[in-house]
UniProtKB/TrEMBL annotation:
Keywords: Nucleus. It is found in: Nucleus. One of its GO terms (molecular function) is DNA binding. InterPro entries: Sec_Metabolite_Reg (IPR050613), XnlR_reg_dom (IPR007219). This is Xylanolytic transcriptional activator regulatory domain-containing protein. GO terms for biological process: DNA-templated transcription. GO terms for cellular component: nucleus. Residues 131-323 form the Xylanolytic transcriptional activator regulatory domain. Transmembrane segments: none annotated. It comes from the Eukaryota. It comes from Letharia columbiana.
């Protein structure tokens, strides 16, 4: 019998993919809308033509590529779940083609406006002091900037600060670090409130204002996402937190996370792919992602849902200061914070974000925190009788231990806080076992708040005991004090 001819002959998936490669763009394709030329949301959709920028390579006359087409339609890079990720899997053409979002222009024409902004950057003798102070007194908090790589870029930048867009991005990061560093001055090692005759307040505000102006310039807005951009946004968010501008900090942190997504920091990329090529860059990229993840505070929802946390933890080898394999590395505290944050997200949102006053549930949460985090802490980070063998060799270990201790107690306070809502009339009808749990939880809340206040005081002493804008010191003095007053 003669087979019936198919009305729509079947095609292989690879043939369909190849067909998509040659679909021409119409004049109405949104990615090339001239009205969006300055919009950062359309970056990467075409070769930049912003004033002052020289394209890194000539524009092709063969029409836009499939990657550009899909990018213009809003597909997220490095995502295996969308069409772009599928095409990257089944067709090597997309692998051979560089991602325009990661291809920065090579040179920049210095305009009078740009020159005026760059002249506002403090002289090197000032930035040298601030950067030295940053690595000595501030970088230990997040361990996000690798000293060796940064100093290489720093020295190169001072030799030719105007040569490329990358250098302009580095200038913004430099200003962010300087303004952030100035928030930790005066200190025990630098007691003056001026640098070379200029007040710290003036320097801090000037660095912040210049960084904002540079980052919003047309040259910078036209630039594709980069790890430098993520870092400068992150430290802008940290600066705002220390200034008590939490809502603004949250908004900037959201922007940093969007940039990180565009770079593919949210997925485990094969070696040599994406924008991070060396092992050091991959390691620092992971540190960047996980620092962005640890953003829960003030009752706000996490900006990165945990189910998207597919990136492996950093190994912490970079920056290790001693050869003892049993010693904690510089990122050990951050890794512990990551595990604690995961548990906190899960426990604090288990009741649809509403606090549960059920003493049995509260007790279950506390026991889980103790079993999964507190009882498994490495010796150097034990809450009580911590192993202090490496404290002299690792000067920041004491401070990191105190900071992690505060985070554990803050999590316990959040879990125990609902006992304040339990009135005597409410508990009078409860069973004896439930009333006993309530009494234990109230006593635990009192103990934990006192422990947290003492830990904050000790951390402040370890940070020099001087005036300090570090947000953790003020925030975690207020919160336990209020809880303590309510629980008494």
């Amino acid at each position: 019998m003669e087979s019936k001819q198919e009305l729509y002959p079947r095609r292989s998936l690879k043939e369909i993919s190849k067909t998509l490669m040659v679909i021409p763009l119409s004049d109405n394709t949104p990615m090339n809308d001239a009205s969006d030329e300055g919009d950062s949301n359309t970056q990467g959709s075409r070769t930049r033509s912003s004033p002052g920028l020289q394209p890194s390579r000539p524009a092709s006359n063969t029409g836009p590529s499939a990657r550009k087409l899909l990018d213009g339609l809003g597909y997220l890079n490095h995502n295996a779940d969308n069409l772009l990720g599928y095409l990257e899997t089944v067709n090597t053409h997309l692998h051979d083609e560089s991602d325009p979002r990661l291809d920065s222009p090579k040179s920049v024409l210095v305009t009078p406006e740009l020159t005026a902004l760059l002249k506002k950057i403090p002289e090197r003798s000032v930035t040298d002091i601030l950067i030295q102070h940053f690595f000595g007194e501030a970088n230990w908090i997040y361990e996000l900037v690798y000293l060796t790589t940064f100093l290489d870029r720093y020295n190169e930048w001072w030799s030719r600060p105007y040569q490329s867009v990358d250098n302009l991005e580095f200038a913004v990061l430099l200003l962010r670090l300087c303004s952030y560093s100035a928030q930790f001055l005066p200190s025990q090692n630098y007691t003056a409130d001026t640098i070379l005759g200029k007040s710290l307040c003036t320097i801090r505000e000037q660095c912040d204002a210049t960084a904002i102006a540079l980052s919003q310039s047309p040259t910078m807005k036209a630039n594709p996402p980069s790890i430098l951009r993520v870092h400068e946004l992150f430290f802008r968010a940290c600066y705002l937190k220390n200034e008590g501008r939490m809502k603004e900090s949250w908004d900037v942190l959201s922007e940093a996370i969007r940039e990180a997504h565009e770079l593919g920091l949210h997925v485990e990329l094969p070696k040599g792919s994406g924008s991070l090529t060396s092992e050091n860059e991959v390691e620092m990229g992971k540190r960047t992602y996980w620092n962005l993840f640890m953003s829960v505070i003030l009752g706000r929802w996490p900006l990165i849902p945990e189910r998207h946390c597919t990136v492996s933890l950093p190994n912490g080898v970079i920056g290790s200061q001693i050869s003892d394999v049993n010693a904690p590395n510089v990122f050990c505290e951050r890794r512990l914070q990551i595990e604690l944050t995961k548990i906190a997200f899960d426990l604090l949102t288990s009741n649809h974000g509403k606090p549960s006053t059920d003493p049995v549930i509260i007790d279950k949460h506390i026991r889980r925190l103790q079993g999964e985090i507190i009882e498994k802490l490495p010796p150097a980070f034990k809450l009580h009788a911590a192993y202090e063998k490496w404290d002299d060799e690792l000067p920041n270990l004491k401070r990191q231990r105190k900071m992690f201790r505060i985070s554990v107690f803050a999590t316990m306070c959040s879990l125990l806080r609902p006992v304040i809502l339990q009135s005597l009339d409410q508990t009078r009808t409860w069973s004896p076992s439930d009333r006993k749990l309530v009494a234990e939880h109230r006593a635990s809340l009192l103990d934990v708040t006192i422990e947290m206040l003492e830990s904050v005081g000790r951390l402040h002493t370890l940070m020099g005991g001087k005036h300090n804008r570090f947000f953790l010191l003020s925030f975690f003095t207020l919160e336990p004090a209020v809880l303590l007053g309510c629980a008494l």
